[in-house]
Hints:
alpha+beta; 18% helix; 41% strand
Amino acid sequence: MVFKKMLSAFGVGGPSVDTVLTNPNTRPGLTLDGQVNLVGGDAPAAIEQVVIGLVTRVEVEGHDAEYSGTLEFHRMAVSGAFELAPKQQLSIPFQLPVPWETPITDVYGQRLHGMTMGLRTELAVARAVDKSDLDHVAVHPLPVHERILEAFQRLGFRFKHADLERGHIRGVQQTLPFYQEIEFFAAPQYASTIREVELTFVTSQRGVEVILECDKRGGFLSAGHDAFGRFQVSHADVDRVDWAQVVDGWLRETTSRYGSLLSQYGPSHGRGHGHGRGPGMGGMVAGAALGVAGGMIAGEMIEDAFEGDFGDFGGDE
């Protein structure tokens, strides 16, 4: 009996958890529906709570190094404390709201190269090892995102890579501790002035703030530099405009108004991380590292589940 209690404390013969999503595909502002299925172990278990959370991989830039960690950015308890009898089977339904700022992971049914997303289920058992489960999630673009991404494609831009950067874009209202960068190689007609473009969506119920960062080529007497543009669109604008024309206008405005935009977004008021966009990240990152205090999860199980399991959408490394 003592041996059995000891095994139970290490999670052997304890309860198991398996989460089943009704549909792993969702969009910002919608929900993820499913149920958490529990099976009791060899002995009664005091369950403290069952929690689900969205996790993703985020890039963190410090003063001297850049690394990635797995971040849980949205969580919800699906049950409080209860007793789970030996071999008892229990299903707990849930409906998890997906934050409006949740990054896009899939476009045209294909995973964006560089993106990961999962739903983590945590079963907290009194006096025992916590059990967990991870399910892959696909976040598809909203109609306005689709139109803008299609416009880049129509203009000849080629998708390169997508990732999440820890930090906040200054002057932009953000609820999540990171933002997504979708990178494109410049289309031929812009190649004389732009090398690459990074596109960021900060989405809300009202609309989308679109931030562009253009890597400008240097001229005969000038060095290359980054130019920033920021534009607001409404969800209601989806079918009202020619998006290729709008995006072309954004790009031309961003690259031609470098002087005024530098004062607004440049080194002192930039996005708040490396690449000359401002010193704001340093202090915050120093305290966060990969610890729980910073919201980062260093769980090998999650890292292993994210390794090599996702398809890639176009582009080069």
